[in-house]
C-alpha cells in the first residue's frame, strides 16, 4: 500500500529523490537540455509538492506543479524510484497533483520532458497530455517534448 501526501520541497526525502532524478537525467541529456529547477527556492504559494510513501513510510516517488498565478501550472520533478515502477504510481501521482492544482485555480498544466524518457511520455499521453510547442521560459530543443493538458473542459469556467 502506498500513500500520496503534500510535502515540503526541502524535506530530505524529496531532496534525495530529486538527486536521483537529476543523476538519471544527467546520464541521458547534456547540461543545456536539462532544465533542473530548484524547487526549494519557490514560495509555498506557488508550489504543489507531493511524495509517495510505501508501507514503511519510505519515500519512493515525488512530483510537483509550479503555479504561475495565471491559471496555468508546470509539472516538474516527477520521479518514481525504479524499484517501485510498474504499480501505476505515476498515474496516481499525476491524478493527485492535478486534483490539487485544480483546487488551487489551475486550469491548464504544461510540462517539458525528454525524448529519451519513453515511459514518462507514455504516462503523460495516457493521462491526456498532448504535444505542443515550447512555452516560456523554454525554447525549442530537439531533445525536449512539450505537452499540455486542460484540467477543465472550458477554461472560461475556471476564471468565473
Average pLDDT level: 93
Q: Can you identify the CATH superfamily?
A: Gcn5-related N-acetyltransferase (GNAT)
Radius of gyration: 15 Å
Helix-residue proportion: 25-40%
Number of strands: 7
Structural class based on helices, strands and sheet pairing? alpha+beta
Oligomer: single chain
What composes the largest sheet? Answer: 7 strands, mixed
Give the tally of structural domains.
1
> Which architecture per CATH?
3-Layer(aba) Sandwich
Pfam family, one: Acetyltransf_1
Domain N-acetyltransferase: 4-152
Protein name: GCN5-related N-acetyltransferase
InterPro entries: Acyl_CoA_acyltransferase (IPR016181), Bact_Acetyltransf (IPR050832), GNAT_dom (IPR000182)
Task: Give an overview in words.
This protein has helices at 12-28, 89-103, 118-126, 155-158, and strands at residues 3-6, 47-53, 59-67, 72-80, 108-114, 130-132, 144-150. By secondary structure, it is α+β, with helices and mostly antiparallel strands. Strand 4, helix 2 and strand 5 form a beta-alpha-beta unit. GO terms for molecular function: acyltransferase activity, transferring groups other than amino-acyl groups.
Amino acid at each position: 500500500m502506498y500513500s500520496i501526501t503534500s510535502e515540503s520541497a526541502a524535506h530530505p526525502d524529496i531532496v534525495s529523490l530529486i538527486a536521483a532524478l537529476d543523476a538519471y537525467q544527467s546520464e541521458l541529456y547534456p547540461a543545456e537540455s536539462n532544465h533542473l529547477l530548484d524547487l526549494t527556492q519557490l514560495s509555498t504559494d506557488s508550489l504543489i509538492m507531493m511524495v509517495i510513501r510505501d508501507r514503511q513510510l519510505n519515500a519512493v516517488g515525488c512530483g510537483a506543479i509550479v503555479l504561475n498565478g495565471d491559471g496555468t501550472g508546470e509539472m516538474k520533478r516527477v520521479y518514481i524510484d525504479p524499484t517501485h515502477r510498474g504499480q501505476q504510481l505515476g498515474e496516481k501521482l499525476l491524478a493527485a497533483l492535478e486534483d490539487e492544482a485544480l483546487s488551487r485555480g489551475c486550469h491548464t498544466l504544461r510540462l517539458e520532458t525528454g525524448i529519451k524518457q519513453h515511459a514518462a511520455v507514455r504516462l503523460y499521453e495516457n493521462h491526456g497530455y498532448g504535444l505542443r510547442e515550447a512555452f516560456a521560459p523554454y525554447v525549442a530543443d530537439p531533445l525536449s517534448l512539450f505537452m499540455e493538458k486542460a484540467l477543465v473542459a472550458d477554461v472560461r469556467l475556471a476564471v468565473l
